[in-house]
């Protein structure tokens, strides 16, 4: 448990010298407890006191990085059990498992398929981060060659060796890429710890249960290897979820250091849809790394979408840049639409406008990431803010008409908005799915009436 001010006071020198800029050691202890100052401010603190406070200040779940510096994947250092308590910070890494019992050409093609699992979703770039190379032949040279090929292609690696010798060969070939080495067990942990230390790589630790896992991590950490990822050994969904939850609770609620590491899980379901559902469940609770079998693009998109939803800060909605955006290649006769900068709203409007096959200008109003009706209720999407956005966008210089389309849900603003900006206001559909029909009928009618 975190140290209280009284706990900290007991290990301070109690000189009340004031050299720390606080009048008493108790006052200094209170500041230390809230992490507003560092123990280094006390010139008389003993080495034991500094070590105790350093240990107490360490995050309950260690931060572990995998991959080279330029494409480092960071796991761990989560601070809450539930997203609404604060937020989740480091999205679950996804690794696709590729076996080495293939020809070099087949391996290259498989790695290319993994590299291609990247998507632009609501303005964010999301992807599958790693390839987990599984030694399926027991041939160290073949394993090392596959690892080198994947590293050469720019993939971050999990190396799943069939033996310590095979893993040593592969790790030595790509150690500069900082792969995750899988896995230390009760039988080989000393050799694996030495290998991880020698290569400077993070190490996965697998136990038969949580008790064995905690014992292993304590031994390995004592040997000097502290960048660990833990695997409880469970493979069924129910047992895996139970272990993942228990690891998270013990790390956060009890500050149980032997399990204070990022946890990994394996999605083992045979059917494609079941594998996605299983992996998504592990993303929710509480895997830092999920290893799956090979994924089709639709599977990967479903999985990274679920992860994106879980790891979006609930207090900071995803936003697009306010200002003027284009759909297609609009010209001076193209319609002008207004919407908010909540990314899901904007990209829905964009997609439905594209479906109408009508190039358009879109004026995006800064509503702090709120959707249309939420922003309207919060008075952040009102006549004044819309008129201001229209003026600042300078859309009047890009079109030869003065007609603008507002969402149907805010039709009540049309009169006041027309007075403020001097544009003719057309009330669009309440749902953006109605944009194609609106463009075919009402926009064409309004354009025809203006030109007659």
Give a short summary of the structure:
This protein has 452 residues and is α/β, with parallel strands linked by helices. Helix content is 41%, strand content 17%.
Structure, described:
The chain is 41% helix and 17% strand. The chain has 452 residues and is of the alpha/beta class. The chain has three domains: 5-57, Orthogonal Bundle (3-methyladenine DNA Glycosylase II, Chain A, domain 3); 64-310, Dihydropteroate synthase-like (TIM Barrel, Alpha-Beta Barrel); 323-451, 3-Layer(aba) Sandwich (Rossmann fold), CATH 3.40.50.11600. The strands form four sheets. It has an eight-stranded parallel β-sheet. A five-stranded mixed β-sheet has the order 13-15-14-16-17, with helices on both faces.
Query: How much is the radius of gyration in Å?
Result: 28 Å
Mean pLDDT figure: 93
Structural class of the helix and strand makeup? alpha/beta
Return the CATH topology of the largest domain: TIM Barrel
- Work out the oligomeric state of the chains in this entry: single chain
Classified in CATH, the superfamily of the largest domain is Dihydropteroate synthase-like
Strand order of the largest sheet: 10-9-8-7-6-3-12-11
Strand content: 15-25%
């Amino acid at each position: 448990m975190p140290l209280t001010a009284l706990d900290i006071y007991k290990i301070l020198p109690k000189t009340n010298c004031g050299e720390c800029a606080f009048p008493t050691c108790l006052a200094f202890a209170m500041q230390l407890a809230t992490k507003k100052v560092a123990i280094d401010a006390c010139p008389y603190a003993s080495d034991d006191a500094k070590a105790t406070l350093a240990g107490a200040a360490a995050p309950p779940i260690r931060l572990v990085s995998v991959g080279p510096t330029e494409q480092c994947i960071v796991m761990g250092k989560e601070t809450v059990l539930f997203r609404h308590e604060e937020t989740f910070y480091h999205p679950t890494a996804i690794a696709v498992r590729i076996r080495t019992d293939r020809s070099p050409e087949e391996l290259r093609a498989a790695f290319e398929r993994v590299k291609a699992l990247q998507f632009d979703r609501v303005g964010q770039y999301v992807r599958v981060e790693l390839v987990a190379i599984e030694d399926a032949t027991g041939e160290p040279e073949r394993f090392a060659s596959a690892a080198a090929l994947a590293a050469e292609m720019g993939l971050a690696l999990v190396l799943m060796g069939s033996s310590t010798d095979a893993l040593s060969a592969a790790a030595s070939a790509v150690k500069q890429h900082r792969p995750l080495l899988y896995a230390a067990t009760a039988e080989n942990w000393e050799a694996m710890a030495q290998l991880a230390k020698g290569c400077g790589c993070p190490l996965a630790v697998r136990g038969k249960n949580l008790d064995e896992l905690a014992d292993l991590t304590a031994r390995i950490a004592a040997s000097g290897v502290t960048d660990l990822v833990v695997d409880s050994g469970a493979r069924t969904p129910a047992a895996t979820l139970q272990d993942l939850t228990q690891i998270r609770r013990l790390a956060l609620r009890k500050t149980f250091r032997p399990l204070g590491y990022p946890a990994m899980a394996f999605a083992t379901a045979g059917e494609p849809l079941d594998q996605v559902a299983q992996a998504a469940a592990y993303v929710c609770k509480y895997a830092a790394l999920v290893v799956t079998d090979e994924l089709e693009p639709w599977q990967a998109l479903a999985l990274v979408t679920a992860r994106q939803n879980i790891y979006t800060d609930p207090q900071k909605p995803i936003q697009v840049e306010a200002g003027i955006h284009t759909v297609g290649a609009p010209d001076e006769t193209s319609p002008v639409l207004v919407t908010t900068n909540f990314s899901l709203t904007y990209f829905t409007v964009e997609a439905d406008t594209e479906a109408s096959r009508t190039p358009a200008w879109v004026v995006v109003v800064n509503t702090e990431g709120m959707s249309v009706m939420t922003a309207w209720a919060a008075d952040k999407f009102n006549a004044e803010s819309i008129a201001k956005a229209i003026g600042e966008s300078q859309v009047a210089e890009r079109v030869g008409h003065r007609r603008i389309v507002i969402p149907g849900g805010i039709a009540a603003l049309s009169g006041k908005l027309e007075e403020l900006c001097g544009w003719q206001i057309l009330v669009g559909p309440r749902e953006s799915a109605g944009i194609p029909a609106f463009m075919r009928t009402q926009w064409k009618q309004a354009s025809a009436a203006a030109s007659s």
